Amino acid sequence: MSFLFGKKKTTAELMRENKRMLDKSIRELERERQGLQTQEKKLILEIKKSAKQGQMGAVKVMAKDLIRTRHQIEKFYKLKSQLQGVSLRIQTLKSTHAMGEAMKGVTLAMGQINKQMNLPLLHKIMQEFEMQNEKMELTSEVMADAIDDALEGDEEEEETEELVNQVLDEIGIDINSELVDAPSSTVAAPAAKKKVAQVEASGNDDCGIDSELQARLDNLRRM
């Protein structure tokens, strides 16, 4: 039977119509008040004019009209203030209703999402993610260790060469000049052995070499 009486209006539509009517009434009251204020100014001018002419009877009549006009203006002010308060309440209710409808829609959407969620599948996905993450971290650690080991070997070789040069410099032997002066690799090897033997002999004969230098020479002999 709803088609006979028209479509039923929603709450939002009703509040919008009521607010529109209130705003229209406020505008009409404002126009009436402005008209009364104009009439008030005219009465004041007429009262002054009649008083100058000595027409006191007319002055009294117009004075009563002026008082009634001012009372009416005051009533219009009060009515306008009350209607504005009602309009503000309707606007607040409209905003609250809109927020409630929005929350209702969000609640329904959240319910549908929760129904569609597969908790066992999500749990399985999280476990798989944790396992793959651990594997990735382990792989990264292994690669980092391998890189560190490779770089550490190069560093040890450089440190060993620097240590040998430092020891030879301390005992006054320039190994680079010895290698340059050597005629060939076959001759360089005995020369190097001879120099090492000389170093050992000088180490045994010279009491000025401290224990640290002696330890470095021992390390060179073992290399």
UniProtKB/TrEMBL annotation:
Keyword Transport: no
Sections of the chain in a coiled coil: 12-46
Name of a matching Pfam family: Snf7
Record keywords, A-Z: Coiled coil
Any one GO BP annotation for this protein: vacuolar transport
Source species, domain of life: Eukaryota
Xref: PANTHER family: CHARGED MULTIVESICULAR BODY PROTEIN
Name of protein: Vacuolar protein sorting-associated protein 2 homolog 1
Annotated organism of origin: Sesamum indicum
The encoding gene: LOC105161906
